[in-house]
Design goal:
globular
């Protein structure tokens, strides 16, 4: 069973009155056992939807879960705040599967009947993008009430000082934009941010979209960060690495195999990026997914006739909508106007191509080198922060090893 489907059923078992209000369809489930549970819940009155009654009714179905499985699922729920977005994500996955099947059928038999089926599937997928929001605060109230008496993690951990500025870590619905001039180290910072996240919690999936490097180059940077072996030397490891260094690199490769890091180097369009985020975020547990995009200025959009500032506005707006819809943090790297001096503290107005990036982002920060006599100090200046404070963080940046270190917070 998928985590998303299991989480939806667990929530409905925990709070059965939601069955009548979330607008869910059993046909959206791939796991027959979970589909059967939903059908039983929908057939029972609210006061009859106990675990025992559900288990008893499942005898009428071919596939069923054990009573212990049902109880474990029900007891695993600590908050129902994500049920609306989870159901919507489930609907989208089902609509996408239906569309994929319709495409295959049309390719096999391009007749009017199959064309109508394809058109219907396209419209169905479009409808899943329409927000069914009745304005009720019940779920958010329940979530806040629970958190008043139960200490829950507020976000995904990264750098300690950055987490403090973000009031606990990278949180759901956050669009975090990090801008820098060329050659300051924004890609390296993105690598370090991903590295910190998967080091702190191996269960967090990080999708890293690189629009100017390939997977081999990115892997070299990640391995350099883990091993303190220069990424330049990793270009010809058989020739330049010592035996013990090759062993260190092999260990690093295995370390990354055990993490949920994915690097995409061929997804260049906004629609492609959104599609991957939508699919992977929908399957992830709360606080277990982050997308990092390097960088926004290289993303392609379908509306190629629009001015670039309009395209950037569309990109930032849709990324923010995606972060809200799936309650996940999205980190976007951005390039600053070249007229910003190397040692000058960047301003919000220096964001290239569009002020909408500032408007759509929850947090906007800039990387720059503040000291001419010490180029290894790179400063992160937070100039917009809806949920926390403004301020600066000094990092020691060792470019050879792709390493950003917060002073007094070495690993």
């Amino acid at each position: 069973m998928t985590e998303l489907e299991q989480r939806v059923i667990a929530t409905l078992l925990s709070k059965p009155e939601l069955v009548d209000s979330v607008g869910i369809n059993a046909d959206w489930f791939e796991d027959t056992r979970l589909k059967n549970v939903l059908e039983v819940l929908q057939s029972l009155e609210v006061n009859e939807r106990t675990t025992l009654n559900v288990y008893s009714e499942l005898d009428k179905y071919e596939g069923q879960l054990s009573y212990r499985d049902l109880e474990d699922m029900r007891e695993s729920v600590f908050s129902t705040a994500s049920i609306t977005s989870d159901v919507k994500a489930l609907h989208k996955l089902a609509a996408k599967k239906q569309l994929d099947e319709a495409v295959v059928l049309y390719q096999m038999s391009p007749k009017k009947e199959e064309l109508n089926r394809l058109s219907s599937a396209i419209e169905n997928l479009k409808k899943t993008d329409e927000e069914d929001d009745k304005g009720y605060l019940d779920e958010a109230m329940d979530d806040l009430n629970y958190r008043m008496y139960n200490d829950m993690p507020v976000g995904i951990k990264s750098f300690p000082k950055l987490d403090n500025f973000l009031a606990g870590g990278l949180y759901g619905s956050m669009l975090l934009t990090i801008g820098a001039r060329p050659s300051v180290g924004k890609t390296a910072y993105g690598v370090n941010l991903a590295y910190q996240i998967i080091s702190n919690d191996p269960e967090v999936q990080v999708d890293f979209f690189t629009l100017e490097m390939n997977k081999r180059e990115m892997l070299n940077r990640f391995v350099a960060r883990h091993t303190n072996i220069s990424s330049q030397r990793l270009k010809r490891p058989a020739k330049v690495l010592q035996k013990y260094e090759r062993e260190v690199v092999a260990d690093a490769i295995e370390w990354y195999r055990k993490r949920k890091l994915r690097v995409y180097d061929k997804v260049l369009s906004l629609s492609g990026i959104l599609s991957i985020i939508r699919e992977n975020a929908a399957r992830s547990k709360p606080n277990k997914y982050v997308a990092i995009i390097d960088y926004i200025g290289l993303i392609k959009v379908e509306n190629s006739r629009a001015q670039r500032w309009e395209q950037i506005g569309q990109i930032s707006r849709e990324l923010k909508i995606m972060a809200n819809e799936y309650n996940v943090p999205i980190v976007v790297l951005a390039q600053l106007n070249r007229e910003v001096n190397a040692n000058q503290t960047p301003q919000l107005s220096n964001l290239r191509d569009s002020g909408s990036i500032e408007q759509d982002s929850n947090v906007v920060a800039f990387l720059h080198r503040p000291y001419e006599d010490d180029p290894k100090v790179v400063q992160l200046t937070i100039q917009k922060n809806r949920e926390g404070a403004l301020g600066t963080i000094d990092y020691y940046f060792e470019g050879r090893y792709m390493t950003f270190i917060e002073p007094n917070n070495e690993e």
